[in-house]
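Input/output pair, single chain:
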Amino acid sequence: MLRIYDLEMNEQGSEDKKIVHQKGLWHKVFTGIMYNKAERSLYLQTIFPKQSYGFERPDYVDFTVGGHIEGDESILEGGIRELKEEIGRTVTNEQLTFLGIRVCNCNPATDYKIREFQYFFGIESHNEADDFDINLVDKEVKSIIKLKVDDFLRLLNKDAFEVEGTEFVFDRENKEIMVNKGVNIAQERIIPDYFTDKSILEKVLSLKAVMEDIK
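Output:
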């Protein structure tokens, strides 16, 4: 069950997650962007098609982790749980930096509406993405893509049609992580709303400032 709110974030009770998206009820989610400060890089996630969406979703790249805040969880509690469940990483509060809230109001399908207060956090990581334990990463996660933060900003600003990154593909059949360097990530792989919603750009710029120790 998810806690639901009005547009002013006044709590209005709770509802089943499926109903929340069918009716377009406001709720809170955690969105995390893992980054490597030394490399000035961030990590994006790709997923396999999800039956829970109920509609066809293109092969977008998205931020490292995201998930609903359940029951009586705090934002940080829900985020730490999602990090463990989705990408098999255990983190502490000290590794999380609050980047701000995005108010997301969109309708990707007639029976799937998104009305979310998305709490964005940077997640500091000193490990390379291929240090993930393939046995712990959620089965819906297809790969992790590492991009320089400046290159991701070039995509968001449409200053580049495509940029190069490194993709870590989870081959569960062979129990290995395949590392593909020089992978081209084009604008069409970015969720369309991210180009028009300036709050996304603001969150990534805030993360870049964190990487560069800008106060």
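The chain has five helices and eleven strands. The chain has a mean pLDDT of 90.
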